[in-house]
Amino acid sequence: MLPGMTANRGYHHGDLRRALLAAAVEAIGESGPAALSLRDLARRAGVSHAAPAHHFGDKAGLLTALAVEGFDLLAGALGRAGGDLLETGVAYVRFAVDHRAHFEVMFAPGLYRADDPEVAAARARAGAALRGGIAALPARPAAEPDRDALAAWSIVHGFATLWLAGALPPAAGPDPESAARSVIRRLFE
Amino acid sequence: MLPGMTANRGYHHGDLRRALLAAAVEAIGESGPAALSLRDLARRAGVSHAAPAHHFGDKAGLLTALAVEGFDLLAGALGRAGGDLLETGVAYVRFAVDHRAHFEVMFAPGLYRADDPEVAAARARAGAALRGGIAALPARPAAEPDRDALAAWSIVHGFATLWLAGALPPAAGPDPESAARSVIRRLFE
C-alpha cells in the first residue's frame, strides 16, 4: 500500500473487484496460477488482506471470476470476426497471446469452479461464437458440424498453446497471427 | 523411508535415478510440476535428502531429465506408427493421455533447461518422427511440408491438451483415441 493510503481508499466496489482481477492477471503472468495467493493480491492492489476474500471468497472463487472474464473476452473477440472461420481462428490465437493469464486459467479447470453457472454461460457464448465460424464453411457432402468444430478448435488451441510454450520451430516465423492464418488454411484444402 | 531401510539401500545407481524420475511423475500427477520439491521426491523414493541433488543438481535439472525421457518416449511412440499420419497423430494423443506428467513438463519449457543438448536431441527425434507421418501424405500441388507439419502438430497437440483439461464437450465421446482419429481425418478431406 502506498504511504498514507488507507485500506481500499479510492476504490468503488466494482473498481476494487476489477483492480483485484487485474492484479491477479499480473501475478499469474509472473509465476503462473498455482503460485497465486489472495494475500499477495491484496498487497499488489494496495488493499486490506480481507478485501480479496470479501469479493471472491477464496482463491478458487477468484480464478472462477477470472475464467468468466476470460470466456467473455474470448466470446467477444471471436464474435467480432464476423463468422469467418479463418478470422475466427486467428482471433482465438490473438486472444491467447494477448490474454495469456486468462487463457492459462480458463483451460486449467482443476483450479476453479468449472461448473459455476456463470462460467458455463460464458463458455457456452465462446463456443457458440466458434461454431458461428464453422457454420460459415461451404457445405460439403461429408460435413459433420460437431467434428468440424472440434477439429477447428483443436488446431487453433494447439497452435496457440505451442506458441505460448515457445515450442514452435523458427520456420513458424516471428508473427503468431500470420503463422496461425497459414496453419488454419490447411483445414480448407 | 521404510523402517530399518538405510539411505539408498537396494538401489543401484541407475535404478535410483529411475526411481526418482518415477516419484517425480507421481508427484506431478498429483499437484503439477510447479509444486514439486526435491525434498518431497526424496521422501517419496525413500532415499536421503541429498540423493536427488546428487543425481539432478536441482529441480530444473530433474525436470530437464524428465523432458528428455518424455521426448524419447514420444519419439518411440510416433515411430511405431510406421509413418502413417493418422496413426502418428493418434499415437501423439495416446502418449499425452498415458504420460500426462511428462507431457505437461515437456511443453512448459520455462521449468527446465530447454536448450540442454540432450533435450534438443530428443526433441529433434520426436519432431522427425512426426514429420515422417507428414512425408507419407499423398503429394498435393500446394504441399508445404513445414506448414503441413505445423498444422498436424497443432491439431493433435490442441486435441490432447483440451482432452487433458477436461474441456471437450460430451459430443467428443468417452474415448480419446477414436475422437482424435475422427478429428485428425478432417485434415485429409
Key descriptive features of the protein:
homodimer, 189 residues, mainly alpha, Arc Repressor Mutant, subunit A, Tetracycline Repressor, domain 2, 2 domains, transcription (chains A, B), transcription cis-regulatory region binding (chains A, B)
- CATH fold-level label of the largest domain in chain A: Tetracycline Repressor, domain 2
Largest interface between protein chains, with number of residues from each side? A-B, 41 and 40 residues
How many helical elements of chain A? Answer: 9
SSE order of chain A, as H and E? Answer: HHHHHHHHH
- Uncertain regions spanning at least 5 consecutive residues of chain A: 1-6
Number of strands of chain A: 0
Give the count of structural domains of chain A. 2
Structural class computed from helices and strand pairing of chain A: mainly alpha
Rg of chain A from C-alpha positions? Answer: 19 Å
The CATH class assignment of the largest domain in chain A is: Mainly Alpha
Cα end-to-end separation of chain A: 56 Å
Oligomer kind? homodimer
Shape of chain A: elongated
CATH architecture level-2 label of the largest domain in chain A: Orthogonal Bundle
DNA-binding region (chains A, B): 37-56
Protein name (chains A, B): TetR family transcriptional regulator
Domain HTH tetR-type (chains A, B): 14-74
InterPro entries (chains A, B): Homeodomain-like_sf (IPR009057), HTH-type_TetR-like_transc_reg (IPR050109), HTH_TetR (IPR001647), MT1864/Rv1816-like_C (IPR025996), Tet_transcr_reg_TetR-rel_C_sf (IPR036271)
Structure description:
2 copies of one chain form a homodimer. Chain A has 189 residues and is mainly α. The first copy, chain A, has 2 domains: 13-57, Arc Repressor Mutant, subunit A, CATH 1.10.10; 61-188, Orthogonal Bundle (Tetracycline Repressor, domain 2), CATH 1.10.357. Chain A is built from 9 helices and no strands. In chain A, helix 4 (59-79) runs antiparallel to helix 5 (85-98) and helix 5 runs antiparallel to helix 9 (176-185). Chain A is elongated and about 60 Å long. Chain A binds chain B through residues 32, 34-35, 107-110, 114, 127, 140, 142, 144, 146-148, 150-151, 153-162, 165-169, 171-172, 179, 182-184, 186-187, 189, and chain B through 32, 34-35, 107-110, 114, 127, 140, 142, 146-148, 150-151, 153-162, 165-169, 171-172, 179, 182-184, 186-187, 189.
